[in-house]
Amino acid sequence: MISTNESGRDGRFVEDESIIKKNRRRWRIGLILLAIVVCQWVLSSFMVNSIFEDSTYRKPYLVTYLCTASFSLYLVRPFLQGKLSWKAAKNIIRPDGTLAEARTSETEGFISNEQADPESGNRMESQDDGLTLQETARLSLHFCILWFGANWFSNASLSYTSVASATILACTSSFFTLIIGSLFGVEKFSQRKLLAIAGALTGIILISVQDQESDEEGSKFSAGSIILGDLMSLTSAAIYGLYTSVLKFKIGDESRVNMQIFLGFVGVWNMILLWPILVILHFTGAERFELPPSNFVWFIIIANAISTFISDYLWIVSILMTSPLVVTVGLSATIPLAVVGDIMFNQLHISFWYLVGAALVGGAFFFINHDEEQENNIIHETTEVDDVEVIDAE
């Protein structure tokens, strides 16, 4: 009897070790995808800033609309393959594009009470229970406005402040992710993380003060526009934090949803729902509809759309492979890239206190990331100990 328990325990440990290795592999892949996203987002910011800051083509809403609409191209292939028909609406569509049988009425919906996690509050379905085509379309409808809002505020901020400042402030999305994620049960709040947030807020204040003072040193932006740009960047960060946390809460794992189909529907919903605002902006004079005036502007718009098309897909997959907080923390890598880029391309003067503020923000991100990794290790260790106790009891 003892040998049976020991054999079962060894087998369980081997299984746990295999799961941990698989999770680590997924985690590394997610971080690699995140690194690609970081480079693409910084490059995209400079491209947009090049046509916004001097009013060459200051059309943040139109540029955001076109970039988001490009997501609808993800639906072309499945549409030609006949996977977007009404007949297939209640079939589960897997990440590889294959269809599975629809669930029964007792198990339909995003969440079931039996699958709720009573301890963490994560109300998620099992990883084998994917979303149907209909559910994926409905989920994308819920997120399309948030998605567009975050990207519009991000693009619009580049008309009023530097790329470096916009990037640093946008990286505060990790703090919004921590707070919102704690409410949804996908992140854990701690005093250590609270201290990190306090340090980052101090850094944000230093950056904002230096931004306002830069107007006196020959900056391209006025003090009023800098404040507006910084507020837009913070608003974008808050929206990013909201939908990354809710997305993780709703989906849980990348194996449960076909991300190309999801993003494709996001693009379609945005095209259908948001075009009237283009008309309103045009006739009110807030943003008149005009075709790009030169080949250079055409190139920037198309290149930015391609970058968004690829990077946003990789970004959302990296969220599901790791965690919302880790991904938003990882975006702090855009800070040094943006600062170096502003110094090289825009001749931006960076003061000592500006660098101190950037260091506080970046340091807070890495501090939170370290804390998050420790929590994950504790979770694994606790799980293994609990397994041993259960086996011994048997």
Please name the defining characteristics of this protein.
13 helices; 2 strands; 394 residues; mainly alpha
Describe it.
By secondary structure, the chain is an all-alpha fold. It is built from 13 helices and 2 strands; from the N terminus they run αααββαααααααααα. A two-stranded antiparallel sheet has the order 1-2. Helix 5 runs parallel beside helix 8 (223-251). The N and C termini lie close together (10 Å). Mean pLDDT is 76; it is low at 105-128 and 378-394.
- SSE sequence, one letter per element: HHHEEHHHHHHHHHH
Strand content: under 5%
Strand order of the largest sheet: 1-2
Largest sheet: 2 strands, antiparallel
Q: What is the number of E strands?
A: 2
Q: SS-based structural class?
A: mainly alpha
- What's the end-to-end separation, in Å? 10 Å
Shape: globular
List segments where confidence is low: pLDDT < 50 over at least 5 consecutive residues: 105-128, 378-394
The helix count comes to 13
Amount of helix: over 70%
What do the pLDDT scores average to? 76
Q: What Rg do the Cα atoms give?
A: 23 Å
